[in-house]
Amino acid sequence: MQQQIAVVTLGISDLERSKAFYQEGFGWTPVFENAEIAFYQMNGFVFGTWLKSSLEDDTKQQILSGSGAVTLAHNVPEESNVQTVIDQLVAAGAVVLREADEPPQGGRRGYIADPDGHVWEIAFNPLWPIDEDGHVAFKM
Fold first, then answer.
1. pTM value?
2. For residue 69, what pLDDT is reported?
């Protein structure tokens, strides 16, 4: 089986609020949207935000509460970008969970929660270069 992820979908409570957050905070524009879902073309996969009730109907699971034990990460090319991105996201509705600091392995990171509580790490890791297409490579 090919090692890849095609789509990551988050359950959300308010589509318009979610779209505003991802557009104003990250600067992302949906490539498709309807009354229940918005899809964003990423670098090698699709990111979706779907009304939680519709996602529960689709999965036939009524236990989709909160963000679970998952964090998403947005890596930036420069250490100084970490605080800039966190500030943009807060202005768009995020809540800071952990102020930006230096982790033991070096670089810089901070954590925010989107308006639905999904946790995002905003990080610069000098050992994980980002190419011009936004792909991150794991190099140690």
1. 0.90
2. 75
